Automatic annotation (TrEMBL):
One GO MF term: unfolded protein binding
Annotated protein name in UniProt: Urease accessory protein UreE
Keyword annotations: Chaperone, Cytoplasm, Nickel
Highest taxon listed in the record's lineage: Bacteria
Record domain UreE urease accessory N-terminal: where: 1-67
Record's signal peptide: none
Keyword Nucleotide-binding: no
Gene name for this UniProt entry: ureE
Length: 162
């Protein structure tokens, strides 16, 4: 079986890809997993450590060919400002819970979560269910693309307000 041990960031690779694969958010956060791409290319993703694969990245196969990665459609919540709550305040509540979020000028997209939905609608936000690719912000650790946020003693502490 072909292996993929190298991720090439979107915009940093050229040439044609031999195949394409669309993965949802969970499927794009892997270290080792067997996949079958859209046109039948079977390969084993075998990275040195878990990574969050991004829409537009490519995987270099052991034979040198490239597989282009895309974000698959999934069920999301699209959150908009509502009576008494602006988008900045909504963003604060989302960030305070360390949720991956896709930010747009007029809305925030989040993965479906009934608890978060209830909180946001309780605050007055307008929340609708959509199906779309989820491409959240990469955040402060995007350059390294490998920061894992574990609830262990890792040198800094978090305080959450309700």
């Amino acid at each position: 079986m072909l292996t993929a041990r190298e991720v090439l960031a979107a915009g940093e690779w050229t040439g044609p890809a031999c195949d394409h694969i669309a993965l949802d958010y969970d499927e794009r956060h892997r270290r080792r997993f067997a996949y079958v791409a859209d046109h039948g290319t079977e390969f084993l993703l075998d990275l040195p450590r878990a990574a969050i694969l991004q829409h537009g990245d490519a995987l270099r196969l052991s034979d040198g060919r490239l597989i282009e990665l895309g974000a698959a459609s999934e069920v999301l919540m699209e959150v908009r400002a509502g009576p008494g709550i602006g988008l900045v305040r909504i963003a604060w509540h989302v960030g305070n819970r360390h949720l991956p979020a896709e930010l747009h000028e007029d809305c925030i997209r989040l993965r479906e979560d009934h608890v978060i939905r209830a909180m946001l609608t309780g605050l007055g936000a307008r929340v609708v269910t959509i199906e779309a690719p989820f491409v959240p912000e990469q955040g402060a650790y995007a350059a390294g693309r490998e920061h894992e946020h574990k609830e262990q003693n890792h040198g800094h502490h978090h305080h959450h307000a309700d």
